[in-house]
Amino acid sequence: MGFFRRYGLTTIIAIIGLVVSIVLFQLIRQRARERSMSELMSIGQNSGAALQKTLDIHLQTVRSLKSLFDASDEVTRNDFKIFTTPTIVEHRGIQALEWAPKVTHDQRAAVEASLREQGLAKHRFTERNAQGEVVVAGQHDEYFPVLYVEPLAGNESALCYADWGDSRRDVIHRARDKGRAAASRRLVLVQEKQDRFGVLIFSPVYESPEPPEDLQQRRQSLRGFVEGVFRVEDLVNEGLDPLDLWAVDVHLFDDDDVEDQRPLFSRHAREESSTDSHSERRNSNRHRQSLTAGPHHVSTLEFADRRWSLIVTPSESFPDLEGGWTPWLALVAGLLFSLVLAAYIATFQSRASEIEALVSQRTTQLLTANKQLEIARFAIERAVDAIFRFDDEGLIVDVNLVGSKLLRTPRSELLGLHAESFD
């Protein structure tokens, strides 16, 4: 009880200061987290919108090229070059634009001979074998060889390419049967010299501008495909480079590719100026589950008939989601202030206790003196002799009852009289 009476206020102030400091720490950290998350969400939304716009532009490029073939019974190689060159120059995300007509097995020899007459380096249809090597195409009922390709420089290996592998065959059938543009899953382009992913957009061209209603008629009236060839890295960089993404990492995934959950592309903030190879960087990428376990923003994108996800996560240079040192400084400052205030109150209380003890001591001494005076007074009053008490000036300051009777004067009248008054 004595401890609480002496240090109770100090203890309460210290506890209140501790609680307030912790609450302030949590509020500042929560505020910093909300501010950082809001910034991350804004960057993620802007990145998703910018990349979707880029994908839409490139898809529209393929559709525009399809319109050229829909409007013409015959498009020459020169027509194709004149039409595509301005677009290719404007958009670095385009690796190539191609025309792949439908060629039956019976027509193959004539088409290959025509290519030789035109002096083209490639004079045989090609495809990839099981080992991934480009070889002369085997026998198939129909082919879709790339006969026009722009720009030709850097894409020579794509000319006459008529691969009938699973990835290309699947997207060709999907585009043909649905009558609209279809996108491939990730693949390594035949013209690719590095380990980078690409995607193909196939847009079907029929005998008439509009696709036939009947599925069988679509297959019979198919003239070929306009192809858009894109490196994923170039697409993403074209869309995102105008943005200030110095503090975030971006990861692009193909939601429809259930067989391969690796990212289509990843770019880390610390690698924007890096000279490392893409394959080295890609090997360090995390999977989607680990990326979405922490703070992140996901944008769902559409490219033809495929869905992609762009995941934006904070990099090491992103503003600290916990507020950095600010919450800790606030906590330390609050605790120090509480300790100083508690120490001051404790000192004040200690001084007050000392004064209280001194007052109590003086009061006890005064009571003792008064008690002694009362005893002395009692003894004087009961004395049988007359007793007078004078001050330094000779004035009567006290007289007992015997003295008052001896002088036959009331006690009250004797007080203050001088001793010489009785001579």
Q: Helices, strands, pairings?
A:
Blueprint: H1 2-71, H2 77-90, E1 94-101, E2 103-104, H3 105-117, E3 126-128, E4 134-136, E5 142-143, E6 148-150, H4 166-178, E7 182-183, E8 198-206, H5 215-220, E9 222-231, H6 232-240, E10 248-254, E11 265-267, H7 278-283, H8 288-291, E12 297-303, E13 306-314, H9 326-381, E14 388-390, E15 396-399, H10 401-406, H11 411-414
Antiparallel strand pairs: 1-6, 1-9, 2-5, 3-4, 7-8, 8-9, 10-11, 10-13, 12-13, 14-15
Helix pairs in contact: 1-6, 1-9
Strand arrangement within the widest β-sheet reads 6-1-9-8-7
The largest β sheet comes out as: 5 strands, antiparallel
Compute the CA-based radius of gyration: 50 Å
Shape, per Cα inertia axes: rod-shaped
Mean residue pLDDT = 82
User: Given the structure, what is the number of helices?
Assistant: 11
User: Percent helix among the residues?
Assistant: 40-55%
SSE string: HHEEHEEEEHEEHEHEEHHEEHEEHH
**Low-confidence runs (pLDDT<50, min 5 residues)?**
272-284
Number of strands: 15
Structural class: alpha+beta
Share in β-strands:
15-25%
**Gap from first CA to last CA:** 67 Å
Task: Please characterize this protein's 3D structure.
With 423 residues, the chain is α+β, with helices and mostly antiparallel strands. Helices cover 48% and strands 18% of the residues. It has 11 helices and 15 strands. The protein has helices at residues 2-71, 77-90, 105-117, 166-178, 215-220, 232-240, 278-283, 288-291, 326-381, 401-406, 411-414; strands spanning 94-101, 103-104, 126-128, 134-136, 142-143, 148-150, 182-183, 198-206, 222-231, 248-254, 265-267, 297-303, 306-314, 388-390, 396-399. It has a 5-stranded antiparallel sheet, with helices on both faces. α1 packs across α6 and α1 runs antiparallel to α9. The chain is rod-shaped. 27% of the residues are buried. Mean pLDDT is 82; it is low at 272-284.
